[in-house]
Amino acid sequence: MLQAQQRAVAHGRRPFSTGRRAVLARAAAPVASQAPTCVPVQFHQEKLAGLVNEQQFKAVIKGLVASGKMPSYLEPAWEYFYDHYKSAVVNSGVPGADEKLVTQVQASILDNVLLQAVQPYTFPSFHTRITEPYNYYDFGQRYVGTLIDFKNSVLGHRERWDRVQELLSQKHNVVLLANHQTEADPGVFAHMLASTHPQLATDVIYVAGDRVVTDPMCKPFSMGRNLFCVHSKKHMDDVPELKAAKMETNRKTLVAMQRQLNAGGTLIWIAPSGGRDRPNADGVWSPDTFDPAAVELMRNLLQRAKQPGHLIPMSMYSFPLMPPPKTVDKSIGERRLTAFTGVGISLCEELDIPSIISGSEEKEVQQRALATAAHSAVTESYRQLETAITDPAFRASRPEFSQPWLQAA
């Protein structure tokens, strides 16, 4: 067993106190995951809490379109999302992964998207995850967890994660320079560390770009994560008249980041590529090239902080779970294709910055060398991680890859 099945909580609803509307909790169908063993599905709207099958859910979507509360083009898009998610979950073979669970999870997503339409949340430069009265962290973990094949997922170099936890406890700062593959990456990261390093899973701060805090489908999931909100160079000029405001937001975020690093004990996750990986012409996935300016920014922030800091590359394999569009699209509202799959993360050795930049006195040359070293480490780690996930024999022969959630079950 991956882990003991979630046991159903008491039947019916439990109201949560909130300043503007009630938050309802419904018992979810049991599902094997390494999420909390007994977490009810929460709802803002009672009528959505009662949906338990596909027919009921799609009827609600049609009703929202008919009443003008949802644009008509979203009906086929959401049906596509529901159908692929249902196929992935129901065919996973996980006990309790049935149509009721699928519908409850999809209804909870719809519930949050609708709430954002009438009560939109604006992300500050530094956003702290929201867990009360509505637990957005559990909301995200539940959805991602139903798509993870824990039997074929791995955590790479557990001892290095132990070291990160130790450094943070000593008030050191750690920046993870990672590749990025799907919208679900924060959930994957948290699930991979939840059984061994729960504090890393919950306390990490993600450097988040435009889509994460503006796409209506992404926003509720983002509200459950700690975020430093920035506008990436890839999308800085998408709307020219907003460029100045975006640059000001980035300035405020840098101030917030420096403040946190000065306090110490801060773990930051950043994708120096500025976006998600994409497959090459042959369909092969690899970590996208790192932007030297992004790596240098993090090195500079660590160097200026009042506490010691460490730059550590990290690889992530997650693209089959929710692959991004093959091309970078500036528009909001992409189709969501999902699959039940193995995933994983693996930590590399800390970058030896003095050694890496010692070959030149030119600043730009040093920056390129540091970004190249980080990207090379992530790429090599990624290849090993991918093989460990897709090849059980290789995984069994390599002690650096573990599955602690299986041992804890």
Mean pLDDT, rounded to whole units?
A: 88
Task: Report the biggest beta sheet as strand number plus sense, adding barrel if it closes.
Answer: 9 strands, mixed
Tell me the radius of gyration.
21 Å
Strand order of the largest sheet: 4-8-7-9-6-10-11-5-12
CATH superfamily of the largest domain: Glycerol-3-phosphate (1)-acyltransferase
CATH topology type of the largest domain: Glycerol-3-phosphate (1)-acyltransferase
Number of strands: 12
The CATH architecture assignment of the largest domain turns out to be 3-Layer(aba) Sandwich
Based on CA inertia axes, which overall geometry fits? Answer: globular
What is the ordering of alpha helices and beta strands?
A: EEEHHHHEHEHEHHEHHEHEHEEHHHEH
Number of domains: 2
**What is the number of helices?**
16
N→C terminal distance: 7 Å
Helical content band: 40-55%
Low-pLDDT segments, ≥5 res: 1-21, 27-38
As a percent range, the share of strand residues is 5-15%
Q: Could you describe the 3D structure shown?
A:
The chain has 409 residues and is of the alpha/beta class. It folds into 2 domains: 13-120, Non-ribosomal Peptide Synthetase Peptidyl Carrier Protein, Chain A, CATH 1.10.1200; 144-408, Glycerol-3-phosphate (1)-acyltransferase (3-Layer(aba) Sandwich), CATH 3.40.1130.10. 44% of the residues lie in helices and 12% in strands. A 9-stranded mixed beta sheet has the order 4-8-7-9-6-10-11-5-12, with helices on both faces. Strands 1-2-3 form a 3-stranded antiparallel beta sheet. Strand 1 and strand 2 form a beta hairpin. Helix 5 (136-145) crosses helix 7 (185-193).
